[in-house]
Amino acid sequence: xxxxxxxxxxxxxxxxxxxxxxxxxxxxxxxxxxxxALIIGGDxxxxxxxxxxxxxxxxxxxxxxxxxxxxxLTMYLAGxxxxxxxxxxxxxxxx
Length: 95
Description:
The protein is an all-alpha fold. It has helices spanning 2-40, 42-78, 87-94.
């Protein structure tokens, strides 16, 4: 049972990793869209900014939300605990 959960967790981890990488890359591309709009100026720039804000940004927000769910499921299925102090670190610090 634990072995199959680990396999599922590995698949979810792969989906999470590649998905977040794509969303971060898309976020970086929006920066270049805004810079291009700044250079172009006028009504065209307003149209570019409106398209980025109304179309691209909501898609990135929804995608990142779903991908975070995959990340949380990965941690849960693998039995990982994040942001929890461990006893090993406390023992090493007290020496």
